[in-house]
Amino acid sequence: MPDRVVVTGCGAITPLGLNVEDTWRNLIAGTSGIGYISLFDATDYKVKVAAEVKNFNPVDYLDATTARYTDRFSQFATAAGLQAIEAANLRIDDDNRYDIGILISSGVGGLGSLSRQLEILNTRGPSRVSPYLIPMMIADGASSQLSIRTGIRGQNLSLISACASGADALGMAYRMVKYGEARAMIAGGADAAIIPIGIAGFSQAGALSKNTNPEKASRPFDAERNGFVVGEGAAVLVLESLDYARSRGADILAEIVGYGATSDAFHVTQPLESGEAAAKAIEFALADLNHDEVDYINAHGTSTQLNDASETKAIKKVFGSKAYEIPISSIKSMLGHLMGAAGAIEALVCCKVISEGIIPPTINLEHPDPDCDLDYVPNKARTKNVRTAISNSFGFGGHNSVIAIRKYSEN
Amino acid sequence: MDAFEEVKKAICKVQPGLEESKIVPGALLKEDLDIDSLDMVEVALALEDVTGLSLPEEDLDGITTVGNIVSLIESKLKGKDA
Predict the structure, then answer these.
(1) According to the 3-state scheme, what is the secondary structure of A335-374?
(2) Contacts of A135 in chain B (CB under 8 A)
(3) Chain A partners within 8 Å of B38 (Cβ)
(4) Phi then psi for B81, rounded to 5 degrees?
């Protein structure tokens, strides 16, 4: 008999705050976390804006030496992970350390560290490359760092599915707990790709907004949307079996009740226009649920022409005429696209929507697009009792991953 | 060039949390200063920057104390002058 899986703690480092509460408060206020790029000189770049994490000090979470040799994405993940474990009141000791696992995903891992060392390699030669390059660069560096920092000795791994990585980390962690592979999983995603090679790469792929007004650049579902805005950060959730949560008297924030994932089998960057495979992922996530229970959809909503139109089609395919009655919002309008952390922060926000009864808006939705004609909660948060929410996440390469989250009730 | 001072600075750069007073010639790198094999390569890279010397991996074999690094630098500097 599979276990029920509940969420008992969350942590976040985002462009809108260095914890969950600040991020949430800013989201429901409709605040944009996007500004001009300050992490490097973007004078020669067509893209001028990004959603940077502000005032983060890694030494708040790691000793100074470790911080120095840890990529920014791993620093974010460690911080969010420690916050989540503390919020869940989960004590790691000899009685449980092998029963708890870690699955932190990342879209691009330590690309920043790699690009800096590559420059050293090319200008000064191989014997000048840092011995820390490999541990800083590898995408599982974040989960390993969190394991070292916490003493968690269950399985420690990462997975990569582009911008669906964060959702897939939660989905796979959900399965591990559901089928008894772990009593608890510390799961989420992290990325820090606001670096020259990251911005140049996504920009050349035609994916980024070239809008020079930071607060207006990310405009999901708006007719004038013209690309996404790169964000950075991390979000981590503590998932555990209901039995374990009850046995230790943990507060339960929400229950994860479904996970569906499919592949477009179509293109390396573009989504399947019909939304067919994305719709299938939603259907799989809702396999054990009644569609009428879904009161909120946290959209992938990147602010690209293609995503927002095909995602809208996918939602209509699944829900039919009821699609028009379900509030949908894209927090990427405010946070930018947190890449490998996006699915994790968006699932986290679904937990908050359920517990607080408030839906954050899609800001900058000013010009209706006939291809995007659903209720995207434009510009202003909305109060609503949400029983079940789904979080859509899609990624380059055709990944479609959907998590279904329900208000916890004992029965 | 005061080799000991340069070694001290390099160690502080690699281990920013370390109390400087612990860095004495007799200090054991691993046990007293928490300098592991990766840190040792970083210390060598930092010393290469300030001394202009080349400190390949094989030179670091058998080094266990701060004093060992100082001696290595001093002998290499002498060789350079000669």
Answers:
(1) HCECHHHHHHHHHHHHHHHHHHCEECCECCCCCCECCECC
(2) 38
(3) 69, 131-132, 135
(4) -70, -35
- A376's tokens: 């995207």
Residue A224: pLDDT above 70?
A: yes
Taking only the tens place, the pLDDT of each residue in A66-104 is: 999 999 999 999 999 999 999 999 999 999 999 999 999
ipTM value: 0.86
In total, the C-beta contacts within 8 angstroms joining chain A to chain B are 28
Domain A259-406 has CATH 3.40.630.30: no
The DSSP 8-state label assigned to residue A113 in this structure reads H
Domain with CATH 3.40.47.10 in chain A: 5-247, 259-406
Residues B56-59: contacts with CB under 8 Å, at least 24 apart: B56/A127
In sequence order, what are the residues at sequence separation of 6 or more whose Cβ sits closer than 8 angstroms to the Cβ of residue A318? Answer: A279, A282, A283, A286, A291
pLDDT in tens, B8-17: 999 999 999 8
Q: Is A399 tagged catalytic?
A: no
Domains of chain B and CATH, by start:
3-81 (1.10.1200.10)
Contact criterion met (CB below 8 Å) for A342 and A402: no
d(CA A339, CA A395): 9
Which tokens is B52 given?
């202009």
Fold held by A5-247: Peroxisomal Thiolase; Chain A, domain 1 (3.40.47)
| Cross-chain residue pair A65–B41, CB shorter than 8 Å | no
